Amino acid sequence: MRIGRIRSYVIRYEDTNDHGNWRHTVLVRVETADGVVGWGEGIAMWPEACKATRLLIDEGFGPLLIEAGDITIDEAWRRMRTHAWWYGEGGIACFAYSALDMALWDIEGKIEGRPICDLLGGKVHESLPAYVANHVNKATREENIAEVVGFKQQGYAGCKLGFGKRGLSDIGRDPDNDVAFVAELRAAVGPDFDIVVDAGNGVVWDRQTGIDTVRRMAEYGIGWIEEPFYPTRIEDYRALKDALPNVPIGTGEREFTVTQYKRLIETGTVDVVGVDPARAEGITGFRKIDALCGAAGIAINAHAWSTAILTAASLQLSLASPNARLIELKPFPVPVQGDLVEAPIGQENGVVRAPAGPGLGIRVNEAVVERLEIT
Q1: Which helix (DSSP H) or strand (DSSP E) does residue 130 occupy?
Q2: How confident is the model at residue 89, as a pLDDT?
Q3: Of 315, 325, 306, 323, which is closest to residue 347 (Cα–Cα)?
Q4: Please, is 212 exposed, middle or buried when counting C-beta atoms within 10 Å of its C-beta (0-12, 13-18, 19+)?
Q5: 3-state helix, strand, coil in the chain (%, to 5)
Q6: What is the Cα–Cα distance from 152 to 158, expressed in whole angstroms?
Q7: In this structure, which of 74, 276, 296, 345 has its CB flanked by the most CB atoms within 10 Å?
Q8: From CA 222, how far away is CA 195, in angstroms rounded?
Q9: What is the pLDDT of residue 200?
Q10: Which residues on adjacent β-strands are paired with residue 158?
Q11: Average pLDDT of span 269-288
Q12: Domains in the chain and their CATH numbers?
């Protein structure tokens, strides 16, 4: 393909899934010389990081791809990585070229008239279980439990619950309270609804507290415990794995590069590797990480908690991966999901299927992008 034009956008939106807080991300529109348009996302999150990402696209990686002439996706990916050798082993550079890589895959699918999952070797799954990815942020334990029960009634197959998040809840602040919440939630949803606990950066446990708390939670059945410690605390992860070998551990969302994921997987401390294609070197990076997961016999979980563009990319990748088990969805409507694309991705009867279109399978409403853009 030959790239003709590239346009990046920093967008801002109010997210009802995050207690009404404002969130930011970077979208990129790539158009070939023949007029085929692809979209990508770099989930830099904070406004200053998003603006820096936009600068790298507009003044660095974008001109690099345009000046390259005819280029394949793999060659573009290698050139962008090489271009950023001094400043780009992770961080802002990865957001920028992840977005561009995603857009190139969208273009390739549209040129071929095929969805990205077909370009990746074909569907391994016709559908995937839909898990609601929700922040526990209501004022009372009862309200939070009722909310999850409602998700089950809507048809979701399971939930991944973020503890210690912004909002009114005290979940994630006290281990005894957290265990009691999991126990009461299990009683409310029954045994056939998966519960994944996402501790994340809002929960701070020392090693022994983490081991003790996870052990108690596991008595009520959890799909996995995600990021119980800061990602760099590998010895704490190893201690948790040694103490509770039958409790799956998830981590990885804050890694950036294939090399970093390789190091993480080689520690033997992770069972479910979280990968965000809008951060971790794009679709090309994800498929390389997926191969590492397959060789290690562990699962991969695509982070999809942003716009419909990222959701579509994560779904295409997951449907083509034998190591993927589920797809996460935001439960509440936001403009970057429902308004951004003509046919939003959602669950039906507890599963999610690929949209019918080529590439990412979505059609972006450019008027919404322009409405949400900030300078």
Answers
A1: strand 127-135
A2: 87
A3: 315
A4: middle
A5: 45, 20, 35
A6: 7
A7: 276
A8: 5
A9: 82
A10: 131, 194
A11: 99
A12: 3-114+367-374 (3.30.390.10), 118-364 (3.20.20.120)
Whether residue 255 has pLDDT greater than 90: yes
The C-alpha atoms of residue 105 and residue 112 are separated, in whole angstroms, by: 11
**Mean per-residue pLDDT, 52-56:** 99
Radius of gyration of the chain (CA): 20
Q: Length of the chain in residues, anyone?
A: 375
User: Is 224:272 a contact under the CB 8 Å cutoff?
Assistant: yes
Place of tokens 């804050």: 254
Nearest in space to 54 (alpha carbons), one of 317, 298, 374: 374
Q: What angle do CA 262, 162, 222 make, to 5 degrees?
A: 75
Alpha-helical segments (H) within the chain: 47-56, 62-67, 73-83, 92-112, 116-119, 141-154, 175-189, 207-218, 234-243, 258-266, 282-296, 308-319, 366-372
Per-residue pLDDT tens digits for 324-364:
999 999 999 999 999 999 999 999 999 999 999 999 999 99
Residue with tokens 């103490």: 243
Per-residue pLDDT averaged across 223-240, rounded?
97
Question: 């801002």: which residue's tokens?
Answer: 12
Output the average pLDDT for the chain.
98
